Amino acid sequence: MISLPYKRIIPWLSLVLAIALLFFLVLPEYDGWRLKVGELSLAELDLSNKKESLLILSSVDESKIRRLERVIPKTPEEPELLVQMEELATESAVALSSISFQTDESGGRVVLNETVTGTYENLKRYLKNLENNLRLLDVETISLSSGGDSGSFQSLNLSVVAYFLVGGGDSSGDGIDINKGF
Question: Is the sign of the CA dihedral 41, 44, 48, 49 positive or negative?
Answer without folding.
Answer: positive
